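Residues pack. One example:


***
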Amino acid sequence: MMILMILDISNLIYRAFYSINPDNFKRSDGLSTNAVYGVATMIIKLVKSFKKDYPNITLVACLDSPTCSQNRKKQQNTYKNNRLSAPSQLKHQFIWIRDMLNAMDIHNVEYENYEADDLIASYTSKFSNTFDKIIIVSPDKDMYQLLDSNVSIYNPRKKMIESIDDFEYTFGFSSQNFVLYQALIGDKIDNVIGVKGIGHKHAVNIIKQTNGDLNLLFDEDFAYIKKNLIMHNKELIISNLSILTLCKNIHVKLPSSSFNFKQLKTQKFESFLDSMEIQAKHLRQYTTK
């Protein structure tokens, strides 16, 4: 079985940084390496775990660009305005993690003005018929809109795989309507304001009554719950839909071969760990020493 595993590295970086004390992982010059260590550990554990059932895994790592929010900010200038800048102990680790991915021979992509989410969506869209199964590794709920019969999400926070059936059982509607659901209730994490007066329950009922059809949603003659709020906030909803829908047409490429742990037994990976002064045995076992 051919598997494409897509890593939401930008999300995993923050997860690693905040789950591992930066004061416990430092080089002799005082610079923290906890995110580097954490991401490397997560990748190796993930691939080892999945390779038991899927020996042929093509691995792709997606990263936010420094200007990743610009396109969406042009549409809504409040988009992600609630985000704090990266902590000082993390900032220098971003480039190191990119270097680490290269040292591990893991295909990694970053496009100017695009978020990692958009790259993931583009990979999912372009290669859904190339692979038997696509697994997105991310705890980000925005990934729900990408679920399909052969696309699932591995949530590293919950340590579980979520399928399209799992989503529909939990939410009560199709994953293809998740963007509309978000557009109605808003997204506090990304600072996207929803329709005041519409929460989870009403949003689900509206989606069920309209089947997520925007023509019905904005049809003046079609009756459904909270319609007055929808019609009054039509422009906001349309704007939210544009902001929240992931881009699927970025020109992305696959690596030339599937991932193999033998790739790590190189001087590159060994030298990288040396430069980080990381001696962890579970990482060092894949070096040439």
The chain has 14 helices and eight strands. The chain has a mean pLDDT of 93.
